[in-house]
Amino acid sequence: MAWIGIEQMEFYAYHGHFDEEQTIGNRFVLDFFFKTKTRKAEKSDELADTVDYSKVYLVIKEEMEKKSKLVENIARRIVDRVHDEFPEIKKMRLKIQKINPPIGNKVKSVSLELRRDFSRKKDKLSR
Q1: pLDDT in tens, 38-56
Q2: What is the mean pLDDT of residues 16-31?
Q3: Is the CB of residue 26 less than 8 Å from the CB of residue 16?
Q4: Which residue has the higher pLDDT, 126 or 76?
Q5: CATH for the 2-125 domain, from 3.30.40.10, 3.40.50.720, 3.30.930.10, 3.30.1130.10
Q6: Cα-Cα-Cα-Cα dihedral sign, residues 106, 73, 66, 122
Q7: Is-catalytic flag, 98?
Q8: CA gyration radius, the chain
Q9: Complete edge-to-edge strand list for the sheet that includes strand 2-13
Q10: Looking at 98, 121, 122, 124, which residue is catalytic?
């Protein structure tokens, strides 16, 4: 097993509670880590033997293109969709940073980190 990370993904998106945020948009930076079996790919050197992180990125990109009011909602959608499309991924960690949030000029970002372990019964039921 290994952790694979897709780090510092930058998106300009229209998420936010305020109307201005949904109209003007904002920058978001995401880090996504997932745990998967890699032993076969370690030996074969074939992409088909592991999770293709470029496809994981495309799922994240598609979810970032859908408007949301809350980063909590964005995070949940991303985690659920990645798990639905890549059921072999059982553990994941997502961090979303909203750059320059509308809460004062001294705040550079706010962030949310969501961790999921789909190998545990609780997370399977809480969806």
Answers
A1: 999 999 999 999 999 999 9
A2: 94
A3: yes
A4: 76
A5: 3.30.1130.10
A6: positive
A7: yes
A8: 16
A9: 2-13, 26-36, 91-99, 109-117
A10: 98
